[in-house]
Design goal:
- It contains three helices and seven strands.
- The chain has about 150 residues and is an alpha/beta fold.
- The relative contact order is 0.15.
- The chain has helices at about 10-40, 50-75, 125-130; strands at about 5-10, 75, 90-95, 100-105, 115-120, 135-140, 145-154.
- Strand 3 and strand 4 form a beta hairpin.
- It starts with 6 loop residues before the first strand and ends with a strand.
- It has two domains: about 5-75, Transcription elongation factor, GreA/GreB, N-terminal domain (Helix Hairpins); about 90-154, Roll (Chitinase A, domain 3), CATH 3.10.50.30.
- Helix 1 (about 10-40) runs antiparallel to helix 2.
- The strands form two sheets. A five-stranded mixed sheet has the order 5-4-3-7-6.
- Helices cover about 40% and strands about 25% of the residues.
- It is elongated, with a radius of gyration of 21 Å.
- The longest helix is centred in the N-terminal third of the chain and has 30 residues, at about 10-40.
């Protein structure tokens, strides 16, 4: 990860990434190392598909571990200081037409639209930053412009 900029993250997101890293190191990697060792003991490595597969999976997993370690090292746990303007980490309730929706603005590493965690670098996230309760925010979407009215900031 060549970029040494801090990675904004919530405490919840940091804890989740830390748990993922611990699981990879303490649980998944030892199983894969054992599988590799077992496959290695079966003889001719050039034709041993399990050995080749395990070796590739281990290299991929080691890359994931290194990336997560970098992200955690560069992480800056951020909490919103006030609720008067939309900022990183806020849960925002909006009105879209006649429907209400709530989402939380997070960093790229913890964004997950299915869990209503929207990245601050997404078009919606960028449009919401700095806005206040009552503000209307227009966002271009594949279906056309969507107008969000901010009902609350928590």
């Amino acid at each position: 990860m060549p970029n040494h900029q801090p990675i904004l993250i919530t405490q919840e997101g940091f804890n989740h990434l830390q748990a993922d890293l611990t699981s990879l190191i303490d649980d998944k990697r030892p199983v894969l190392v054992n599988r590799l060792s077992s496959a290695r003991s079966q003889g001719d490595l050039s034709e041993n598909s399990d050995y080749i597969s395990a070796k590739e999976e281990l290299a991929f997993m080691d890359g994931q571990i290194a990336e997560l370690e970098d992200v955690l090292r560069l992480s800056k746990i951020t909490i919103p200081l006030t609720n008067d303007k939309v900022d990183f980490g806020h849960a925002i309730t909006v009105k879209i037409g006649t429907k209400q929706s709530m989402f939380t603005l997070v960093g790229e590493w913890e964004s997950n639209p299915a869990q209503k965690k929207i990245s601050i670098t997404s078009p919606l996230g960028k449009a919401m930053m700095g806005k206040k309760v009552g503000d209307k925010v227009e966002v271009d979407a594949p279906a056309g412009k969507i107008v969000y009215t901010i009902l609350s900031i928590n």
